[in-house]
Design goal:
Elements: E1 2-4, E2 9-11, H1 18-23, H2 26-76, H3 79-84, H4 90-94, H5 98-125, E3 135-139, E4 144-148, H6 153-189, H7 197-204, H8 209-235, H9 257-262, H10 273-306, H11 313-325, H12 328-338, H13 344-351, H14 368-395, H15 400-408, H16 413-441, H17 444-450, E5 456-462, E6 465-468, H18 473-480, H19 488-512, H20 514-517
Antiparallel strand pairs: 1-2, 3-4, 5-6
Length: 523
């Protein structure tokens, strides 16, 4: 495709310079960027695979160099270093660093005791997730049969993963112990003095104080964030559900079967791919409109209130903020009842004669299109006040000289908005837009409290139950995990897919927003 501009042919499929780009119309510029975005996809994919290959190569090079360093440390080290390969901390204790040595030694003792008492047991159970079912046995003391517990698949999976992580932690600590011996030998050979226990404690309270402060939060992040995520990922490869609770009926590994079920395009009762595709598409549509309607309408309201000559600005802001003061749980349930078939809105329409009889009442939550439009509009009512407050603060910090210069140059209100206000807004609020979009993908409250995901769609009937036309992935996930037939494994698969989608979109948007590309333009 070629466009003629200023008596010069410019091909939109070729790379053009900045001067040629300025000669294009706005439509041509947008089209040029779209064309080159898709042209760049093959190179981007190739660069991604090249980067992954580079990471794998560097990983094996690092492993090789580390193993070489370990062997050289053992061969060239003294007897204290050699014994430390077996008795962790021996070299540090022998060289006078008692505290360091004792910490290494205690960690090794705890590891050996744990592995002997429980570690090997849980590792043995991990491949099968348990084989012994609960039963009964005769108790001569009670002269009756009592329940005897069998394996617990949940514990087998959890403690098996913890054991593997503990082994990795031990390997890492052992490597630190070896490296510490090498460093200590080099320091002593150079004639310097090793740090004492007092020096170590002082260091942790002074120049290494950041490590001391971060130790507890990092531990919490590991146990309450990393470990649950890892556990959820592993559940996706099992048949853990209401029928296989892991206690009365064990669950086991099923490999990629759950992912195959989700992406199986064969029609039928077990077809999950159609439901997933429908719900994913609506989730992205909802997130787009829920984010940008709030953003631009909130900006518009803030600009109108802050406009010179507007009276009672505090009152207008106060009225809008009141919607945020009421808990969403209360306001959304109230609005849901208002627009129900026998709610306040239909009652008012009947009383005013707009609706002649009950056969003509508006079923807001039973029509797919109307229900989707309603949740987007009601979300505007919830989100605009918050955006108005954010934008108000930003408007007050845009230099007034820019607007004055623009007016002198003859720019009208629309030009001032698109050339000054909007670029500043996008620069400052770019990260917020990204987090807001991701938050709306997982916006459980608005959808569930208004429509509970309805109206139900028979076309979305799956082995995991029926999904509704306003269900987001997160509300569908909630339905899957509740009830007697809870499909925890499927919820885990969907959770992984949500993570993949959100991560992909976040990376693209983050690299496109002005906040990360044009920082120097606004400094």
């Amino acid at each position: 495709m070629e466009k003629t501009n200023n008596s010069k042919n410019i091909s939109l499929f070729d790379d053009i310079g900045d001067l040629d780009l300025l000669q294009l119309t706005k439509f041509q510029t947008i089209l040029y960027k779209i064309i080159h975005f898709f042209k760049g996809i093959p190179n981007g994919v190739a660069s991604l695979f090249k980067y992954i290959f580079s990471l794998i190569k560097n990983f094996f090079v690092w492993i090789k160099n580390d193993l070489t360093d370990i062997v050289q440390t053992f061969v060239n080290g003294d007897y204290k270093t050699k014994l430390s390969f077996i008795i962790m901390g021996f070299g540090s204790i022998a060289r006078g660093q008692i505290l360091r040595g004792l910490l290494f030694l205690v960690f090794e003792i705890v590891f050996i005791v744990y592995m002997y008492v429980a570690g090997f047991h849980w590792l043995g159970k991990l491949p099968t997730l348990g084989t012994e079912l609960p039963g009964t046995a005769y108790d001569p003391r009670l002269d009756t049969y009592v329940r005897v517990d069998g394996d617990d698949s949940f514990k087998c999976l959890l403690y098996g993963v913890l054991t593997i992580l503990f082994i990795l932690a031990f390997i890492y600590t052992w490597r630190l112990n070896v490296k510490q011996n090498k460093i200590s030998e080099e320091i002593l050979k150079s004639g310097k003095k090793l740090k004492s226990a007092k020096d170590d404690v002082s260091s942790l309270l002074d120049e290494q104080f950041h490590k001391t402060l971060l130790a507890l939060p990092l531990t919490g992040i590991f146990f309450f964030t990393v470990l649950p995520i890892l556990f959820m990922i592993l559940v996706a490869f099992t048949n853990y559900d209401g029928a296989h609770d892991g206690y009365s009926n064990l669950f086991t590994w099923v490999g990629m079967d759950n992912f195959n079920s989700l992406f199986n395009l064969n029609l039928g009762a077990n077809n999950l791919s159609v439901a997933f595709g429908e719900i994913l598409s609506w989730t992205l549509i909802w997130a787009f409109f829920a984010t940008f309607t709030n953003y631009f309408l909130g900006m518009f309201v803030a600009i109108m209130i802050n406009k010179k000559g507007i009276k009672f600005k505090k009152i207008w802001r106060g009225i809008l903020v009141l919607t945020s003061a009421v808990p969403q749980f209360i306001s959304l349930l109230y609005v849901s009842k208002m627009f129900s078939a026998n709610g306040l809105v239909n009652g008012m329409l009947l009383n005013t004669g707009i609706i002649s009889d009950l056969s003509h009442i508006i079923r807001f939550w039973e029509d797919t299109t109307l229900a989707r439009v309603m949740v987007i509009v009601i979300n505007i009512w919830i989100g605009v006040p918050y955006l108005m407050l954010i934008v108000t603060g930003i408007l007050m910090n845009i230099p007034a000289d820019l607007y004055e210069s623009a007016r002198i140059d003859g720019a009208n209100a629309a030009q001032q908005f698109f050339k000054i206000t909007l670029p500043y807004m996008l620069f400052v609020t770019g990260p917020y837009l990204l987090t807001s979009f991701i938050g709306n993908i997982n916006n459980f409250n608005v959808i569930y409290l208004l429509t509970a995901g309805g109206p139900d769609n028979p076309k979305l009937l799956t082995s995991a139950g029926t999904a509704g036309d306003t269900d987001l992935l997160v509300t569908w996930l909630f339905k899957i995990t509740t009830g007697a037939e809870s499909k925890y494994y499927l919820a885990s698969v969907i959770g992984i897919m949500i993570f993949v989608v959100v991560s992909f979109l976040a990376l693209i948007v983050y690299n496109a927003i002005p906040s990360t590309r044009n920082e120097e333009d606004y400094s």
